[in-house]
Amino acid sequence: MGSDREKEFAILQEMEEKYDSKDASYFNKVMKNEPSLVVRVHAVTVLSEIGDESSVLVLADVLKKDPSTLIRHEAAFSLGQLGLKSAVPYLVDAALNDPSEIVRHESAAALGAIGDERARDALNKASKDPSDEVRGSAIASLFNLDFMLHSAKREKEDAEKLAAKIQEKRKMDSRSKKKMPHP
Fold this sequence. Notes:
The protein is mainly alpha-helical.
């Protein structure tokens, strides 16, 4: 907590009011301008729910530069919850280079939640991290990428089977149509 709890309470109250309007730009400003740890934790958490593409750069900056391990961890989580592929490069950097294992772990987990193949190489590297938590998150995320490929392949196969059935039905229908009788 900061030195002025009343100010923090007032900001949190304003945040409650702004949450109803789902105003991501307001929470982006709080993240950029508010020094209070507790206020920033709340703001980054809200961004995981209501954030949009404009929040990715704000959260990426927090993930890279915030001195608080807790805030960087929450930023990684929020980027994963947003699920936007534009967050992948920032999460890759954090998964491989952040000094905190909880930030690396959360970044690896967020990459799995997003499910973008561009993260595969970084996740393979993270799967060799000295931290059990980072390795575990990277392995789980790699499994998720594999499952997504598997699911996409099955969906394609199912679509191809359906297309073949439709084509066969059209052929059968065209053969069974009676021609107009002629005198």
